[in-house]
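Internal ticket #5521
Category: modeling
Description: The requester needs a full-assembly model to guide mutagenesis choices. All entity lines are attached below as received. Residue total reported by intake: 276.
Assigned to: D.W.
Attached entities:
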Amino acid sequence: MKLFDKRTGMEVMDDRDCLALVGEEVIGRIAVIAGGRPEVFPVNYAVAGDSVVFRTATGTKLDAAVNGPVAFEVDRFDPATRSGWSVVIHGRAEVVDGLSHPDLRQTLEALPVDPWAAGNKEHLIRIVPASITGRRVG
Amino acid sequence: MKLFDKRTGMEVMDDRDCLALVGEEVIGRIAVIAGGRPEVFPVNYAVAGDSVVFRTATGTKLDAAVNGPVAFEVDRFDPATRSGWSVVIHGRAEVVDGLSHPDLRQTLEALPVDPWAAGNKEHLIRIVPASITGRRVG
């Protein structure tokens, strides 16, 4: 059964549909609070179960992500047909290292999440969802 | 002259290049702080001078945007070539109404920012940039 938002007319997607769409894309945007203001960073990511995984270097993105709530957004829109969808995952981010998560680290290491930018992105980050919302338009 | 980030190898774009790229797209993502956590909303927008303009209805997006700092992100990535760019505009958002900004309102009303979703999006919002950062990869 399809659900629609009365106010906007947009279709509201369930968690399963949201995760399926997120699994089809490779670039998402992580939003964090850093220095009291919102920051947005595009990352290339992979999906493992209901978690989103990406790599990052030490820096603002990592510090803010592991020390506060995060939102992770993925979308696809087609201007020609004015249609598309977006999914936002709210949750927390954690560093997956070999000590705290030896088996998980090994599994996630095998995912295709090598960043496009150069530099040593040694940290594997997992977003653990608390809620998932998705909307489809057009 | 091109500038590069030593750590990531990514090209750092100047404000003019950033705004030119933002002007070529139609969908961006506004990040705000709402209820102590980051929120991300895709919007279709237009550029007027160095401001980004979009429409929204009364609600979380509007309340958070006009009551705190915002980040506005636009990007374009090509998975096939692992290349692309992203621009993030930090600043504040303001409602452009006919009383406080009669001339500006008239100008902005003419921009192609009718939202794709249904519903009465009566508020015209302008993001006034405090800083613009852009990176290009690949």
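Resolution: model delivered.
Comment from assignee: DSSP finds three helices and eight strands in chain B.
Ticket closed.
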